[in-house]
Amino acid sequence: MKKIDGFISDKDIDGNYLIFETYGKLGFAYSVSYMDSDPKVYLKKMPTFNEVYAYFMSCKTHFLKINKSQDICLSLFYNPYFEEFYLRLKNDIKNISNNRLKFLKKYLLSDFADPIQYRGIIEMNVEEKEYYITHDIFNKSKELLQLINLKLKK
């Protein structure tokens, strides 16, 4: 699988990069200081959704920050590829390893389906509010978590 060409940093980086926001747990994992830091994903070239998905599913790492390309995939699943991610995961869930599902549950979907985080995004009128609402990230993430939990119980 082709590695995702990019990096995550909480420093402002000059250059010809495509820049994307990170989310909750991933942002905290790459923050130097939780209060003053805003880590972003920097990419030289935008990979397709299929490249991101295939790379992520080929990974074996169980923790954040060990495989930075895997972490970039998580961030891209949030933005800009949430709709594609939601539909593919929903359709492929039976064929995805339990370890990959547990990783997604722990490091991605539990953040998105957290009612406290959701309320904070909605009430504080943060930048992600429109994206979060437009893509119904909270409810779709809860749905994916239910499907994952059903598969893991078998």
Tell me about this structure.
It contains 8 helices and 3 strands, in the order E-E-H-E-H-H-H-H-H-H-H. By secondary structure, it is mostly helical. It has a domain at 48-153. Helix 4 (82-92) runs parallel beside helix 8 (137-153). It is globular, with a radius of gyration of 15 Å. The chain starts with 5 loop residues before the first strand and ends with a helix. 27% of the residues are buried. The model has no long low-confidence stretch (mean pLDDT 90).
Provide a concise account of the structure shown.
The chain has 154 residues and is mainly alpha-helical. The protein has helices at residues 24-29, 49-58, 68-78, 82-92, 98-112, 115-124, 129-134, 137-153, and strands at residues 6-9, 18-21, 40-43. Helices cover 56% and strands 8% of the residues.
Task: Based on the model shown, name its key terms.
about 150 residues; mainly alpha
Task: Give the helix/strand layout.
Layout: E1 6-9, E2 18-21, H1 24-29, E3 40-43, H2 49-58, H3 68-78, H4 82-92, H5 98-112, H6 115-124, H7 129-134, H8 137-153
Antiparallel strand pairs: 1-3, 2-3
Helix pairs in contact: 2-3, 4-8, 5-8
Report the order of strands and helices: EEHEHHHHHHH
| Beta strand % | 5-15%
In angstroms, what separates the terminal alpha carbons?
30 Å
Whole-number mean pLDDT: 90
Structural class: mainly alpha
